[in-house]
## 1
Amino acid sequence: MRAPRRVVIHGHFYQPPREDPWLEEMPRQAGAAPWHDWNERIERECYRAIAAARVQSPDGRIARIRNLYAALSFDVGPTLFEWMEHHAPATYRAILEADRLAVARHGVGNAMAQPYHHVILPLASRRDKVTEVRWGIADFQRRFGRHPEGMWLPETAVDDETLDVLAQEGIQFTVLAPGQVAQPPRHGRPGRYRTANGRAITVCCYDGTRSHGVAFGRLLVNARAWKADLLADLDPAVPDAVTIATDGETYGHHHKFSEMALAWVFEELAREPHVEVTSYARLVADWPPVESVTLVEPSAWSCAPGVERWRSDCGCRVDGHANPSQAWRTPLREGLEVLRDALDARFAEEGAALFRDAWGARDAYGAVVAAEPDVRHDGVRGWLRPGLTPAEEVRARELLEMARDTLRMFTSCAWFFDDLGGLEPVQALRYAARALDLAGATAGAEGLERALRTTLRRAVSNDAALGTGEDIWVRQVRPLVPAGVRLAAGAQAAATFVPSWPSPDAPAHQIEVVGERVALTHRRTGRRRHYDVTVQRSGVADVQAYVRPRPDLDRAAPDEHLLAGIVPVSLDEYPERERLAVRDGLRTVRTHELARRLFGEHRLASLALAGTTLVDAAVTELQHEVDQLAGPETGGRVARLLALCDLLELAGHHLPFEAQTRFARVVRALPAPARAPFAEAARRLGFDDTLLVDDEPW
């Protein structure tokens, strides 16, 4: 006999994309410290924790470790999954394995799909809805090896056309908040919705009160109370379902260590004879819908007025205690919608000469985006018109990349938070900038950019220092030096100072460095760019690169059509990967230079034979120089002391406590007028000016 109560706990896993759109690399994000970026931080706090959750024994020790994805119903955003595949492969594999186990045991998996970008679909055209859904399905199929039964809608934002597109593409069910239908079906069962076009799709409504208690209340504070809540009003004679849906980041990120509460509840529910933990897919398979539902449209789970949060100052905000204006939302959407229409027109017009079916090619490009970028096996060629030149094939792929950026301009996060100057709106504008770059000068991109900037003047940040959307565009969005130039500069500098360079694994480009010529090939488009690059070392810790694009060799990439002459690029402007490599290389070079100057080749060889490290030798030598400071040749000894401090700093070693103590004794023993030559040495050893003027006895 099947258990009368089914319990579904669903996690919607998603993070706003924050990569550099031109380089496809995640920059360091200070707010995520001590981790490199927010994806890395949340993976550590949440995604990995759920894959290896600790179940405690009564005495507080670890009884077992469980992969909770095997019990959880879940969906993972494709852009987050793409990051996880490369940067958290163990967690990525654990999620896929959990779904495979569910399929083997129950015939259906625990995983649901998502549209590819986190776009508010009721605000999108039908054509964009179709593309987003098809891309999401393609991504799901590549990762899980099957067609998804269900699809989670971003912010559960829904209207009739959205559900019609899901049904059209073979999606069997979706999940909505209880207020998104006029009357949820009884006993937590699925309902049937029939679209205006006559297509049917199953709708599951989660328990709003219980879900709110998990996400925003105190149910995760006391796992016993949470279990009791899940079993409340259990009637063994009436089969029913209790379904909870929250952001997956609830477990471990929003509520620290709450994945342990989730693990305990799963363990306890498994012991209950009248309860079965299941997934939405199994619930739909076991309980085909009987009752029909009426849609409340357009609506979403995080906006009381419907979907206004993503286009107007509706009052929905993250910080409910503040009262900032969200009037910026309207011009931001208006400006991007006008740009989208113009870019879509350019795609259709230019694409007509390059593709058999331009919009069909865009839909099929989802399989390319979901796969490893490789222009040789990108699946695009079948959509190209026969007889195209190699240059025309490259342009066709650039148009598809432009279409990709046009879609991701509308990632919902750009409007969700409280200010125009946040990471997410800036990210959407960066997608717009790259789309304009790919449109190229011949498409009138400059005029389109001017029109967008004019609209953005009406979008005003709540932070007066940030100004308008146009100010943000100029300062934070539009790079002064194009990505290709920055990457060429960084690659040449790295090749100069890092013996193992160039690295062939840049996410968006293949890199070749031969002499002073750098060639970059974009992995998805095949666009090849050439640069002449020279580098000059400036001082101890800086490298200046001088880059001259070579349009005579590659007909100039679209985003570099305004560049002319030689472009100076400083170390701080290199992409992060190359910048860090160059700094490490400079540190190594400088360390070797200092070591040879301080010890000489013969003594360095003797130290190596004696097993003495360079740091140990530098510490001993520094203490010796401090003891001799008051003797003859003060100037030379101070210079040597400073060089030894440099060497220890380059080696990442702290300044020795004993050297500081000895230095203070030596300097204090001198009359105040005689201390002046030691001012720089005092500063390098961590002292302020007090040591040089204070006559207090030691």
Note: The longest helix spans residues 576-610.
## 2
Amino acid sequence: MPNHDLRILIADDDEDDFILIQEFIRDGFPSARPHIDWARSGQEALSCLDSNQYSICLFDFRLGEPDGMELLRNVRQMGITLPIILLTGQGDEETAVEAMKSGASDYLGKASLSGKTLSHTIAQSLKLHKEEDQRRKAENTLDAQDILLQAVSDASNILLTAKNHKDSILEALKILGKALQVDSAEIYQNLASANGTPKFFQCFAWTKNLPQEENSRDIFSSPSCENLELEKKFLSLKEGGFTQISINELRSPARKLFPNGNISSFTLVPIIMEEVFWGFIVFGDSQSERQWSRNEESLLKTVAASIGSKIRRHNDETAFRSIVEGTSSQLGDDFFRSLVSNLASALPVCKAYVSEMIGGNSLECSILAGWDNGEFVRNKMFNVKKTPFEDVIAGMVTFCSDSDHEIFNGQTFSNGQKIRSYAAVPCFDSHLRINGHLSVMDEKPMLDKHRTLSVLKIFAARAGAELERKKNESLIRNMAYHDALTGLPNRILLNDRLEMALAQAQRSQSLLAILFMDFDHFKTINDNLGHDAGDQVLKGVAARLKKCLRNQDTVARLGGDEFILLLSEINSSKDAENLANKILQVIRKPLQVQEHELDISLSIGVALYPRDGETSTVLMKHADEALYLAKKQGKNCFKFYNSKEISLKEV
């Protein structure tokens, strides 16, 4: 810490102790010149804290009335968070615990004080306080961003779902204004006069503490500002810039835009439509100019785009109604199917698709739902490389009104037809990550770029949310039925598949086998190399086991180092024997874990249906007993349950 920044308050009613502590501090910080204030009582200390800012405080436990402990509690109740060290002549563990619970940064006995110990404690307390302050600021920033993100989500939802565009925009401004804790939120439209002079009209306005009806103003009777000489900051809005203005920066003509006398600063967010500056949202604040993070700027620009889309959408309300009504109550596959059919009808085009990205950075996509000349299509995989969609998954909007050349490679979309026009927009999740795209195509030219992209952008937001919900639902379902470490089915999914396999075996009078597998000496790996190495072994073995199976077979992890293999529809016990031998051979190969090359082996117990049992419970029990026999008779082998014909196979 710079010398001039270290300011210390010592509260002690003993002058000799104060002088001694002061000397210890100066000895402990030989290169510094800390500023030290002395308070002889608790009241004097509170007065000092009220009129000065300190880096750290040292309170004597036996200060008087109030004593150091009570003074500490009073300071914390006042919301003062600076580090405080409690000092005492005779302390005990109980007092130390009480001090820390009351908010002390540390607790020291005067008898053991020295320049070294005191300076170390002060430096450590300052370091911890700085880290805590940074953490608290980071949390506050994240909390503010979360509040804004929720507000943007709520406002976007209102803008997307509310029928009355005027009421929905006012409600969106109210939600944003309250979330941002500003005094006003207004929307101005840029209307050029007949001679080209800029002219701004106030379309919508929300002011804190005013009833909703007083915030509602008609565009043609609202204040306007003609012959406005735009300053550089206003001009940056036309380029899509995020702009902040102090009222003192504006000349008289520009101040007419902001008649509220309590406002001292403004944040202007442009509304861009079709790459044209339509107007702006202005957030008026009575406080000084605030600092916006890039995430907050992005969120406000996102909601500005949503508001702009809502205004444009008002003129297309009739055309959009069919889409809204067709998708508003749908979820999942029903939503996607309804969306593409209604998009094709409303735009109109012959093809419409909702596609999902496969993996975060992959060029592979999957069609979740498609409408192709009156028929639904889905589950088609395609690669976007060297197609217009390559730009879309990079976050760009793409539009082609008419093309004379082949646009897409292959037959994924064309089906023998020549696609002359297309449009596509990306879909985003709640973290503004691209998770898919909406696209439409036609055999004839698309003439209305403005309207086509507007529709797609509007519903890309809803589609992105549904894609995210679908993905989260799939993850939750996967977590419920799969082992978190290996990704293999867990006991629940295994039992379900086993019951299905038994039912099928009963119907077809076929055989199935249960192979109960357990590591030999797995505890030794965990004990010698640690659980991380053990986890790597489990994952490596799981990968090897999966390669040994047919598509209809299942390998599951029960927990620990126990695995179950369900082998369905086998011809004889020889199939199970062959697979057991194959597994033992595959697992025997050395496994590289960290810097170690490990020799792994398994013991396997085998039970057959219907010979060894006809229910899942009995089969699992008998396979477990066979595993016990394999362990007992040498390990690194397999053993059939109660089998007299087949002897133990040593490997």
Note: Residues 216-230, 644-651 have pLDDT under 50 and may be disordered.
## 3
Amino acid sequence: MPNRLAAASSPYLLQHQDNPVDWYEWGDEAFAAARDGDKPVLLSIGYSACHWCHVMAHESFEDETTAAYMNEHFISVKVDREERPDVDRIYMDAVQAMSGHGGWPMTVFLDPEGRPFFAGTYFPPEDRGHHPSFRRVMQSVLEAWTARRSELEQQAAQLTDAIQRQLPAATDLPTAEVLTQATTTILSGVDHEHGGFGGAPKFPQPTTLEFLLRAFVLGAAESHETEVADAITGALDRMSRGGIYDQIGGGFARYTVDRIWLVPHFEKMLYDNALLARLYVRAWQTFRDEEQLRTAITTLDYLVRDMRHPEGGFYAAEDADSEGVEGKFYVWAWDDFVAAVGDDTAIGAAIYGATPEGNFEGSNVLFLPQRLSETAADLDLTDEQLTTAKSRIDAKLLEARSRRIRPSLDDKIVTAWNGLALRAFAEAGAVLDNPAYLETAVGIAEFVATHLTDGQGRLFRSWRNGMRSVPGFCDDYAAMSVGLFTLYQATGDDRWYQEAARLTHEMIRLFADPDGDGFYATGLDTAPLIARPKNYMDNPTPADNSLAAEALLMMSALSGDGSLQPHIDGILRAAGQLLAQYPNAAGHLLGVFGVTIQGPKEVAIVGLPELRRDLVSVAWERFRPDCVLAVGDGGTSAVPLLHNRMAGNGAQAYVCRDFECLRPVDNTGALRAQLDGRAAESLA
């Protein structure tokens, strides 16, 4: 008989609806039951694409004896970390404080007031080395709860106090020296042999790479220019050739278990692919490596093909497992590879490094041992011949793979992650002059407006099958605001500017710290938890406050609203210590901070759409992270940056900073010179 989770909206919670555990969702009902029964709360946090979450569920939560013990002695609460990032963040802090590390599944024991007193991650069903069994952990907790309650209460109070503390905000704003220091620190962690940062397990870290790319194109890395370029291109090249990238279907897995990007943990997340696709587009604009463009396009096309809801939003994730086996959908036994590719086996094996022995548990994770031009030379083929052969081989492999059982899909639609995807498709559409990508971006915006916004305009965190989950968090507002401002810049449609501006003002109302020190993750209108967290660290998506700072910066440039600057400054002061000491954890905010040093360039292009097209294309032809673009017919626009701009007989472009403008220009060469800082006149 299904338990309470049968009424949940989260696919992860629904995976547990048939457990014999008497699960509760997070909420007042669970804690009231804990108080009434004088029982501790057993909080289990995970997500649908988490392999070890599935393992612990099978070993413990599906076991009748274990479930009976849980039901007798605890109030058990199951949480989807993607649906409730606030709960996840608070209790992850507890896990890290108690054990020095964190991860999922997360297992936390709480008192009936929600205060944690013991925490860990995965617990096996039997003792394994230094890892106690789940049953032994529960027995120890119950014994302490019964016999040493006062000690637990004291520990819970101390741990809660530690969780509630915030980093002290600095008195002064960080200086440009922080950017130089951050670049040096980040470069010291580069893996020069295999690309990326650090060792195994290895994560893409797109926010750190984007900071380096922004620093490179803005000239903020002059003393390290070659090293920065090598760090960016080395990471992007090795990732796109590695097993972390789905070589035949497109899209990136979450991370690799090794240092060389070969064997992935096979789940695919929307946020990783949105961030990486955008990064590859912008890197291609900078370095003009066609492999970077190919990777960007195939990643975006993967999202459209496999991750899009029919009404326009994007699903959260694809699982690592199919048929209960991690990676089974993606890997190739040699005989299966030969059967699929046929006469092209020799070429296919050379392209993808496939062998009879395999590189992963007797099978092959497909990867590119070298760049395609090098493989073509080894096979005595032209680049064009190899490209033709590869397309033919990919089609065969993709068709054969389509007959396999796919990994399960987490089909909830998360607002913040759709904001990231919205930005990626809007920028790709503008950069590549691809109307289909722009239509995809518009579809995301309309989906969120229709399904994830209530009658009062309040955003919600996620949606699935007609059910909204909980009120949205700061990252939902900030990511959607940035995405919508980007969609406005890509289309010139005032509707998206107006909605982005509305969300930004609502973000300030709901989440801003009254003392001016950044933004809380949770809104004023939501039920309080034991702490009200603030997020400054990227993990793995851009942090709430970094996205908020970028949304505020965009709106300030487009509107001229000076009241927004103190909020930006408050974020930078609050995160100043983090930027200086742990730059790898704050790449997105560092990138935004780099633009604030001199202020963004405010670019206004006015005129009829067919007449302004060439000028607009100049604004998108290079990655210019310091440019904020307003596009329209002029005085009738809702965007203040366009007010009182005259188009003359055709189209005009105005390049400004702090609303001091260069002479308007009406041709692409003059605009390009102004945007690239080669104009003969200064801002005046």
Note: The two ends are 74 Å apart (CA to CA).
## 4
Amino acid sequence: MNNAVLVALRRLRAPIVLLVMVFASGIVGLVLIPGTDAAGQPWRMTIFEALYFMSYTASTIGFGEIPQAFNTAQRVWVTIVIYASVIGWAYMLASLLTLLQDRGFRNVLETGRFRRQVRALREPLYLICGFGETGALVGRALDMLGLRFVVIDLSEERIQELDLLDLAQDVPATVGNARLPENLVAAGLTHPECRGVLTLTNDDQANLAVAIAVRLLNPAVPVLARAMSREAAANMVSFGADYVVNPFAKFGEYLTIAIQSPGSYRLFSWLTGLPGTTLRPETAPPRGRWIVCGYGRFGAEVVRAFRGLDLDVTIIDPVEPGLDDLRFVRGFGTDAATLDLAGVRDAVGIVAGTDDDVINLSIAVTAREINAGIFTVVRQNLRTNHALFDAYDADMTMVSSGIIANGCLALLQTPLLGRFLEAVKREDDAWADRAIERLEAAIGVEAPDIWRVAINGADASACHEALGRADYPITLEDLRRDPSNRDRTLPCAPLLLSRGTTTMILPDPEVSLQRDDEVLFAGRPAARRAQRTLLRNVNVRDYAVRGIDLPGGWIWQRFTQPVRRT
């Protein structure tokens, strides 16, 4: 039986018992009290007649005295029953209103509705545990990509705010603890269409609990987890998390790439950017002496990155970090005196990396007043402060939620993107600049959609069939032809071609495809939709690849094809 029905029956037990007693006693009294018919002969109601009379009388419908007119004794009894039933119904109504206002009962109703919504989904879905700033960013991006997702969060306010987001889909969401396996199952963990779990809470232990639950309950589903320390990240990986994002360590890696190869960092940021972002101008942090304000988890990762590049670092923090080989100044860095002690006038860059956005902006503003040419890296803890950080216009801004969201989306779109980005790390700055120029000419400056094309019978049936014939070659350039006008090129470009154990980065457009190839494309959503038609429709394929424009319908082709003569 439905949980809501059980709860309702339990809460309404007293008024229901009262009404049953009123009805039962009324029926018994009507059966036992004798009446008198028109001839003066005694008569008694049957049980059915008494039940029928009570049904329309005690429910306030009213009908009349049947099967005979009542005598005084019967009318006295009916009067008592009527008043008793009024009291019973009033008690029932009051109890029902109280039940509807009960928080626990409303939670039961919401949980039941949520479970039905999840069960009704018939398309691939992702489960997001934790819908704070990071979860909201990922949710918006998934919605823009046309992917369904389900949300579970401890905060009722966050679940309510979900309704205020301008999303194209109705998102099933529930208030619950993601640590509890039953909540994960209710949210779709074991749903046949579940494609991944993103655990993005601000509690490392909760994220670890989710990763363990997924590995035990549905090990085929990939887990993408957020971790705020290297120890927590290592622990999650040991328990089977497929991808763990430590935003502080990831930014340290990005900062290293930006110093060594600004073009590669620019390419990274562009391809992993959230939908709607654009290609940014090149940012090149200088080599030299740096000042790091705040030696917490973020500052430690930044110092690690600088030391890996053999750069001179000075730390400003209220608590001495205990690093004997680094210069240390006690303080926050918001005042000119502290910054002067740290050598801000001669430093090439400063990192404002505390847990407070106001302090970080104060550090950066003061540093620029003293040294106008200093390179500023500012940590933004809350996305709601974006107006302040946009107004300041730092050279680099670190936003934890953005880094985590970018990393998760990059993996969700296709694992091939990870292979491409790893290859970018191995290339020099000049190669990255040429890659950006080539891609920008093909797809523009907005952050592109990333998708995988598998040349197989399921995803690319038309091309897969053609490649089985020796006289029908298809190149990468053919996949970029516009199905409505083959002389136009779709706004997309191949990033990677995977063939067995061989991987080609930025492959030549004239490379001929083979069966079971996998191609990573970047481009506009319209190009992705048009390309899908080319891959699966034989007539569209023939027109785009060979310029053969045949009638599209099967019946029309049947009547227009040449007649064979024997």
Note: Residues 562-566 have pLDDT under 50 and may be disordered.
